[in-house]
Amino acid sequence: MSDATYRVMLRMQIIPGMGPDFERIWRKVGDSVTSHPANRGQWLSRSEEEEDVYYIVSDWVDEASFRRFETSDRHVEHRRQLHPYRSGGSMVTMRIVAHLPGTGGAE
């Protein structure tokens, strides 16, 4: 992963009881993000401290590419599919300035 990676983190509050359906749809429509040539990967995490809260982390080659995706028809459709499960959310953007690889899982 390049130090120039542009990272987007979404915090999504999901309607109580809809978490499993949200996870299923997120997996189903995720390739609309990960198939974009500027996307470096995407992760879905469920909070262990806050009920019905998920975090989506998405890495991009640069901010300009992410911003073009953010306003694209492909992104609008992606959001449309996930929106019925949301009750709120927020977005934070950042640049990776350093990466120290760990040894976990290495033999």
Supply the key terms:
107 residues, globular, 4 helices, 4-stranded antiparallel β-sheet, 31% helix, alpha+beta, Alpha-Beta Plaits
Overall average residue pLDDT: 93
Written as H for each helix and E for each strand, in order along the chain, the element string is EHHEEHHE
What is the helix tally? 4
Helix content: 25-40%
Count of extended strands: 4
Largest sheet: number of strands, sense, barrel closure: 4 strands, antiparallel
The name of the CATH topology is: Alpha-Beta Plaits
InterPro entries: ABM_dom (IPR007138), Dimeric_a/b-barrel (IPR011008)
Pfam families: ABM
Domain ABM: 6-94
Protein name: Antibiotic biosynthesis monooxygenase family protein
Give a short synopsis of this structure.
The protein is an alpha+beta fold. The protein has a single domain (6-95), classed as Alpha-Beta Plaits (2-Layer Sandwich).
Write a structural description.
The protein has helices at residues 19-29, 31-34, 63-70, 73-82; strands at 6-14, 39-46, 53-60, 86-95. It has a single domain, classed as 2-Layer Sandwich (Alpha-Beta Plaits). 31% of the residues lie in helices and 33% in strands. It is globular and about 35 Å long. By secondary structure, it is α+β, with helices and mostly antiparallel strands. 11% of the residues are buried. A 4-stranded antiparallel β-sheet has the order 2-3-1-4.
